[in-house]
Amino acid sequence: MHAHIVIGIGNDFRGDDAAGLEAARLLRGTLPPEVPVIENEGDPAELIEAWTGADLAIVIDTAVSGAPAGTVVRHTVLGPSLSRGDAPQPPPAIQHASSHALGVADAVALGHALGRLPRELTLYTVEGADFGLGAPMTPAVRRAVEETVAAIADLVPRSSARLRPF
Amino acid sequence: MTHKSIRIGGLTRVEGEGSLLVRARGGRVTDVELNIYEPPRFFEALLRGRDHTEPPDITARICGICPVAYQMSACQAIEAACGTEVSGPLRDLRLLLYYGEWIESHALHICLLHAPDFLGYDSGVAMAADHRHLVERGLALKKAGNELVAALGGRAVHPVNVRVGGFYRVPARAELAPVAERLRRAREEALATVEWVAGFDFPDVEHDYRFLALHHPAEYAILSGTIAVSDGTGFTAADWPAHIVEEQVPHSTALHARLDGTAGYLVGALARYALNGRQLSPLARSAAEAAGLGPVCRNPFRSIVVRAVEILHACDEAIRIIEDYTEPQAPSMPVEPRPGVGHGVSEAPRGTLYHRYRIDGAGLIAEADIVPPTSQNQARIEMDLRHLIEPRLDLPEAELAALCERAVRNHDPCISCSAHFLHLHLDR
User: Fold this and answer.
1) What is the CA radius of gyration of chain B?
2) Is the ipTM of this complex over 0.90?
């Protein structure tokens, strides 16, 4: 059981779909050691397992919404103001963006059905442009990954201080 | 004659994505085209020029669901090329790792992808809302598989501890004790899963399958053996290229495999069960009998029962291996590269997976060839669809489309990384 957990989702062999994984790698070693950083390649069961019981789960995934490549959006999928009984709402941009059978939106819905969600869930989406097999990440997405990493590195220590018991 | 065209937003609940086109005219199905894109072709090119030690780690990335299968076929092909065969406790550990992957993969497919078809839900998520404990049981089973893979492979997804010749590190006996304890509970959950899925309402459909699976004289083959075919023929891994030929078909980027010149053979759970069912563990065998499977199952909808039986077998055998385990003297055997060709075959959860490598004098990969189970089953899935649809062309289009998706899911195809649309075109 962790107060915080960071999960990067993606596929290293599908161009910009690697953004979440790359962000996780950059964050590992940057964040406090008690914050686990997980790379997830599309296994919703593993996602649910990882975030169950956490105070705050921060998830990074690639999105396809039509926005310019590299656009980073922070979504509060599950926040303190959302009642536990309400269904969380992942943004439409990630509903069908996964290159796997079940994506993060499915994991959130499944976690909700099973009562296995973190207390808060923040999702960072990085808009992808090229998902070609073996393609490198586009420069705009790479810059966006660095931007996202910096934002999360800023967020986690503050949140840790807020959530830790005195 | 009317013409109708339906677009469905995704061939859902298969591992990966695919598209399907069905044309019917005058009461006859004229075309069935399952269109998938295959990452292995990309990886074959990527492997050329790499060191002979690298394919297990590189090919493991082809599929997030069955990386161990890719590692095992790759390791065995390279070891064969180098004149080495891994045996004894190291082979047992490989089996153990592979059982973990079978449990993970089958549990996911049964409980989240396939069962909703039988209970009238359009997704595992929708099913979870009404059948929480069943989905929880599936996830618990999957977790047991994850823990087994993590214990041997270093982590649950894309294990990093496998190397040509064995492992980088092997577990101490004491490390495996809690895994065995977890597997004993999983065995109970697996038995309950067999009983649960055996009670589903199955469409009354049978196909005259030509089955192909690995066969091993001493075990329900998963890791190694010779290739057996249900017509009584068989061949060794080294003879694979003489029997299995892949060809391009116009409608697909994937290659279609032919067995001795004929397309449409079947690999996977039904084939393994038909060819090797007598070698299941006694508990799995009796569960299969109680589930009414009989010695051969030709109803693809019942493959969900066979997968549940295979989970039970995997738990049983994994427990046995852990109980008998003695630590090997070294975590790996030396494998000296030499120029040559090696073939490796194993049973991925979805079916037979073949690797071939040619190694040059510098120990580098000169050629790589990977034949995944889904490309072997593609032609057979199209035949299943044709037989299933033709007598039912009068069904409402939505019902027909749903049936098509079910027919594809029966074979748990791994269609990673392809276009995400299913098109059903009906001219009738």
Assistant:
1) 21
2) no
Model pLDDT, residue B315: 98
B44 vs chain A: nearest CA distance in angstroms? Answer: 12
Instruction: From chain A, pick out residues whose CB is under 8 angstroms from the CB of B37.
Output: 133
- pLDDT given for residue B61 in this prediction: 79
Query: Would you list which residues of B are annotated within the binding site for Ni(2+)?
Result: 63, 66, 414
Structural domains of chain A, with CATH: 4-163 (3.40.50.1450)
CA Rg, chain A, in Å?
15
pLDDT at A139 (0 to 100): 97
Distance of alpha carbon B297 from the chain centroid:
17
Task: Decide if B16 and A99 are in contact by the 8 Å CB cutoff.
Answer: yes
Asked if B30 and B103 sit in the same domain, the reply is no
Picking from A14, A44, A113, the nearest residue to B132 by CB comes out as: A113
Structure confidence at residue B258 (pLDDT): 93
Which residues of chain A from 58 to 97 reach within 8 Å of chain B, CB to CB? 96
Nearest to B263 by CA among B276, B272, B273, B254: B254
Looking at B355, B378, B401, the residue that finishes a domain is: B378
CATH for B271: 1.10.645.10
- Number of folded domains in chain B? 2
pLDDT at A111 over 50: yes
What residues make up the domain containing B325?
39-378
Q: What is the pLDDT of residue A149?
A: 97
Q: Angle formed by the axes of helices B88-108 and B132-153, to 10°?
A: 150
Which residues in chain B touch residue A113, judged by CB atoms under 8 angstroms apart?
125, 128-129, 132, 135
Contact A96, B420 (CB under 8 A): yes
Give how far A166 is from chain B: nearest CA, Å.
34
Cα-Cα-Cα-Cα torsion B313, B318, B323, B326, nearest 10 degrees, comes to 140
Do B43 and B28 belong together in one domain? Answer: no
